Amino acid sequence: MTGVLVLAGTPIGDIADAPPRLAAELAAAEVIAAEDTRRLRRLTQALDVTPTGRIVSYFEGNEAARTPELADALAGGARVLLVTDAGMPSVSDPGYRLVAAAVERGVKVTAVPGPSAVLTALAVSGLPVDRFCFEGFPPRKAGERRSRLREVADERRTLVYFEAPHRLDDTLAAMAEVFGADRRAAVCRELTKTYEEVKRGTLGELAAWAAEGVRGEITIVVEGAPESGPQELAPEELVRRVRVREEAGERRKEAIAAVAAEVGLPKREVFDAVVAAKNAEKAENTENAKKA
Fold first, then answer.
1. CB neighbours of 273 closer than 8 A, spacing ≥ 6?
2. Strands of 184-189's sheet in order across
């Protein structure tokens, strides 16, 4: 008889938000796999629970190596409880590998629903919540980040991201560049904690605000793209968008075609704007050389 894998949601800030079943599962589990055993200890003390099962660490660094061990315990009939530092396991946290291994072995997988930074940020953002998609953490490297953002630049659904505080200003600046500085967004900081803050505005405004430095756990909510259709953009803006794509590694021909499709204009119109800008730069350089 196989065991059961229980994915337990944990508070994202306020300990009072712990789901009622969490204490019971912590007490009953034969094995508790925790992203951080020290945080687990603080959690059990706050809930006045004394675990009787074996406690093992299960984090990004050892997730691949420890999964077979936990899968064997499940196959042998153990009740394994998986908890992360905050929120639901598997959602930008360890867990997916173990869930996949359990499913492959025919082990039952269930969950203790709990607080979610994704849903909490959506609810308080003031942006549309009827349709949304979660994009996790943006890539750390600037080029990869811009490339990933371009993939969803035309996404109509509201977008939700996690981000580290020390990368927030760069990410918001990249979003303003790719999505447009006027796109509405909300930065949700320290949700449910003492210094909770929700900063709303355009991506341009938020990027300027974040440049001064921001601390805490961050969730970003971004308004979806407006309905597609021809946009009235100045030639300078068309040229800027082409250059952003070129800097990310696209060939000019491909960049022009992509921008034309993005804004609903003929490729010739975007091409002409790029050529005109190039000729203007040459003329200016020539004039400056004469003066020198």
1. 235, 236, 238, 239
2. 132-134, 158-163, 218-222, 184-189, 197-202
pLDDT digits (tens, 9 = 90+) for 39-76: 999 999 999 999 999 999 999 999 999 999 999 999 99
Q: Which segments of the chain are extended strands (E)?
A: 4-8, 31-34, 54-57, 79-83, 108-112, 132-134, 158-163, 184-189, 197-202, 218-222
Contact partners, residue 215, CB within 8 Å, separation at least 6? 165, 189
**Closest by CA position to 161, among listed 184, 135, 129:** 135
Tell me, rounded to whole angstroms, the distance of Cα 10 from its chain centroid. Answer: 19
Q: Say if strands 79-83 and 184-189 run parallel, antiparallel, or are unpaired.
A: unpaired
For residue 222, the SS3 value is: strand
Length of the chain measured in residues? 292
| Residues with Cβ within 8 Å of residue 195, at least 6 apart in sequence | 189, 216
pTM of the model: 0.74
**Sequence-separated (6 or more) residues with CB below 8 Å from residue 216:** 165, 189, 190, 193, 195, 197
- 88 DSSP assignment: -
Dihedral in degrees, nearest 10, Cα atoms 260, 161, 250, 253: -10
Are 33 and 58 spatial neighbours (Cβ–Cβ below 8 Å)?
yes
Considering just the CA atoms, what is the radius of gyration of the chain in Å? 24
For the segment 162-189, the average pLDDT, to the nearest whole number, is 96
Three-state secondary structure call for residue 165: helix
| Contact call for residues 23 and 47 (beta carbons, < 8 A) | yes
Distances from the Cα of 287 to the Cαs of 208, 273, 277, 280, in angstroms? 35, 21, 15, 11
- d(Cα 238, Cα 117) in Å, to the nearest integer? 36
- Greater confidence (91 vs 77) lies with 77
